[in-house]
Amino acid sequence: MKQEESYFVISLDFELFWGMFDKVTIPEYGERIQGEQTAIPRMLALFSEYGIHATWATVGMLMARNKDELLSLLPPRELQPTYEDMGVSSYRYIETMPIGRSEQDDTYHFGSTLVQKILATPHQEIGNHTFSHYYCIDGHKNSDEVFSADIDAFNRIAETYGVHATSIVFPRNQTSPEALHVCHEKGIRAYRGNENHFLYEARKDSSQSLFIRAFRLLDHYTNISGHHTYTIEKRGDGILNIPASRFLRPWSKTLSFLEPLRMRRIKNAMTHGAKHGEVFHLWWHPHNFGIDQEENFNNLTEILKHYKTLEEKYGMQSTSMSDLTKK
């Protein structure tokens, strides 16, 4: 990669309820999941308007077209992950919670129509977010064969859409050297690493202390940890680490008076990356836009307008994660 070139990367963790079932209930969070049905087409239209290349890191389970197809893809029980708290296992969730027959009666768990809309939009990439929203650190006692079986299940459903994913985003940003080795063997060439600061180190979900959460929140409004723009270097195993720069928090009525600070924080980092020939990597979940859509899309539009200014002034380029491996 030419160091003077700057890049604007967007990745989205597309999960539906598979990414939230261990945190909240459908009555508590379902409105946000349902909101993806309108939010995702709006995002795609906005990306098309501004020429944005984006990576949609997708949980394989939501790509199943119906429950029968989902069940047919599950690895054998001996190759399903175990966790200290099995309440985080989507395999256990399937056994214990009611799931509809298909997308027609359950858009919390099935999203094939949305996947097709993403694939039909120019410059959009379907990336790997594991088949089951797999936790690499919380499941650190699992063998490589268990994680490999999960990736194989993702690849089987992705192939039915004509997709061969070459990028991955790890659920809850839980990376590990062992998992990256498996990914490389499976043909994955890029992953989203964590910001290079102790606040964002990969941790067990239970280790995200109130101290860490509080300073992460503050970091969204004032520059505590840096701009997090990067030049890209391949690991020795050939996988490109494309670290996150900033999580696009959803709009909050409680903190709305601080929105100008949050937008300035993001745009300042984008400008720094554009000026210095570096990468700025923005990410969020589509369900973050499930409610308060006007406010969230106003913020996203402001960011994309700023990108176009940087494109014109400094030549910054929009690129998906897989695109960046080819630069």
Q: Overview of this structure, please?
A:
With 327 residues, the protein is of the alpha/beta class. It is 38% helix and 11% strand. Strands 1, 2, 3, 7, 8 and 9 form a 6-stranded parallel sheet that branches. A 3-stranded parallel sheet has the order 4-5-6. Helix 5 crosses helix 6 and helix 8 runs parallel beside helix 9. The mean pLDDT is 93.
**Strand portion, in percent?**
5-15%
CATH level-two architecture: Alpha-Beta Barrel
CATH homology group = Glycoside hydrolase/deacetylase
Uncertain runs are none
The beta-strand count equals: 9
- What does the radius of gyration come to? 19 Å
Structural class designation: alpha/beta
Give the overall form: globular
Instruction: Specify the CATH class.
Output: Alpha Beta
Would you tell me the overall average pLDDT? 93
Summarize the structure.
By secondary structure, this protein is α/β, with parallel strands linked by helices. It is built from 10 helices and 9 strands.
Question: What key attributes describe this structure?
Answer:
alpha/beta, TIM Barrel
Question: How do the strands and helices of this protein lay out in sequence?
Answer:
Layout: E1 7-14, H1 26-50, E2 54-58, H2 67-73, H3 90-96, H4 112-119, E3 124-128, H5 144-159, E4 167-168, H6 177-185, E5 190-191, H7 210-219, E6 240-241, E7 246-247, H8 259-275, E8 279-284, H9 293-314, E9 317-319, H10 321-324
Parallel strand pairs: 1-2, 1-8, 1-9, 2-3, 4-5, 5-6, 7-8
Helix pairs in contact: 1-9, 5-6, 8-9
